[in-house]
């Protein structure tokens, strides 16, 4: 019996994993007690700085879009075998977009910063990319570089992936658990406890840094990070073993029979951390609402301007239509008068012809001469 316990202890010791606290955060579901910094990590951003809450880090907010956020570990990884665990969540509208990168690179904070796989230049290391590539709801791909290839100017970055798997990561309503394992000759990527892809051709060297970068599209996806844990197979200074310690050999384990500790009464009032988190969330909501209000106001002003312009165009069109109707009436009146003028001209012409033809005859019939003594003839015209 003692021999079996001893073998169990040897097996447990051989498979023990130790948490590297200097490169980990999110233990006990807490990121930062003061919501101002993540111990052992640098925060970077373009357009905004990642928002730190008590239980998560918002790398890219849901609004506005085209934002970048990054986290880089201050301490390099000194071991050659390790397991990295990331818990994240991505939410957004139906046509939202963005990407999340998990880096293991040399001098990542200085050489990579907030870049994505499509905007980074020369880097030395490995990166996992979570994005909608492939059109199947998303996927996870692995890329490597030895510092000689400029990804930003490469004609087909997507063709450089050394491994991939399809994974619909958006709007799951829960965090996704992503693991990278480098143990022995195996390099494995595991998502939600299922193998994504593996290879025996990859062996990353020590003394590199872990980092996270996220970028959102114009219609933004929000990337939230809940936890990052780094485990090694060897314990170093200030690291605690991941596994629970078994009882000494030969001593019965009475933990199952021990009376449970006295349950603590639930707090009657929120803690300071909860108040700070609530305040931060309210501030974020207020900023988003204010931005939306400003956009709605601008749209309303543009709409009013277009309405006035259309109104002026409609009034001008009405005036043109009225003038056209008046011109048509004038043309009709002119045509009517033209007919009357033609008839009058014909009548006058006929009257003139009759007068010209009958005037000599009438003058010969009505004219006679009166002869008087010693007087000149008197011509009398009959009326």
TrEMBL record:
Residues 1-16 form the signal peptide. Residues 237-272 are annotated as: Disordered. The keyword Oxidoreductase does not apply. Gene3D superfamilies: 2.60.120.200. It comes from the Eukaryota. It is a single-pass type I membrane protein. One of its GO terms (biological process) is endoplasmic reticulum to Golgi vesicle-mediated transport. Pfam families: Lectin_leg-like (PF03388). GO terms for molecular function: D-mannose binding. Residues 275-302 form a coiled coil. Residues 17-233 form the L-type lectin-like domain. It is found in: Membrane. GO terms for cellular component: COPII-coated ER to Golgi transport vesicle; endoplasmic reticulum membrane; endoplasmic reticulum-Golgi intermediate compartment; Golgi membrane. Residues 258-269 have a biased composition (Pro residues). Keywords: Coiled coil, Membrane, Signal, Transmembrane, Transmembrane helix. This is L-type lectin-like domain-containing protein.
């Amino acid at each position: 019996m003692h021999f079996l316990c001893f073998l169990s202890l040897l097996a447990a010791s051989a498979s023990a994993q130790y948490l590297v606290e200097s490169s980990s955060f999110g233990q006990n579901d807490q990121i930062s007690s003061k919501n101002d910094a993540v111990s052992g990590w640098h925060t970077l951003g373009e357009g905004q700085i990642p928002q730190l809450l008590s239980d998560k880090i918002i790398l890219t907010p849901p609004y506005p879009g085209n934002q970048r956020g990054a986290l880089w570990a201050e301490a390099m990884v000194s071991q050659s075998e390790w397991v990295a665990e990331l818990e994240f969540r991505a939410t957004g509208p139906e046509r939202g977009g963005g990407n999340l990168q998990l880096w293991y690179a040399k001098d990542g904070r200085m050489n990579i910063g907030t870049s994505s796989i499509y905007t980074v230049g020369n880097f030395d290391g490995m990166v996992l990319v979570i994005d909608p590539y492939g059109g199947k709801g998303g996927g996870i791909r692995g890329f490597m570089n030895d510092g000689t290839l400029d990804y930003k100017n490469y004609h087909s970055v997507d063709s450089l992936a050394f491994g991939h798997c399809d994974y619909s990561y958006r709007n799951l309503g829960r965090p996704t658990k992503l693991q990278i394992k480098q143990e022995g000759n195996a390099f494995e990527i595991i998502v939600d406890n299922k193998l994504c892809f593996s290879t025996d051709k990859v062996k990353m060297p020590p003394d590199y840094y872990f980092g996270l970068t996220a970028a959102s599209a114009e219609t933004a996806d929000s990337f939230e990070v809940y936890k990052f844990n780094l485990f090694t197979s060897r314990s170093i200074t200030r690291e605690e073993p991941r596994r629970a310690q078994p009882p000494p050999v030969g001593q019965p384990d009475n933990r199952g029979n021990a009376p449970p500790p006295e349950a603590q009464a639930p707090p009657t009032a929120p803690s300071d951390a909860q108040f700070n988190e609530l305040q931060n969330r309210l501030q974020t909501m207020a900023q988003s609402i204010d931005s939306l209000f400003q956009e709605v106001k601008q749209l309303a002003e543009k709409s009013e301007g277009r309405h006035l312009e259309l109104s002026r165009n409609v009034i001008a069109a009405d005036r043109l239509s009225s003038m056209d109707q008046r011109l048509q009436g004038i043309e009709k009146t002119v045509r009517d008068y033209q007919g009357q003028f033609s008839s009058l001209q014909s009548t006058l012409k006929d009257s003139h012809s009759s007068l010209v033809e009958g005037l000599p005859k009438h003058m010969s019939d009505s004219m006679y001469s009166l002869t008087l003594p010693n007087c000149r003839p008197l011509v009398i015209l009959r009326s």
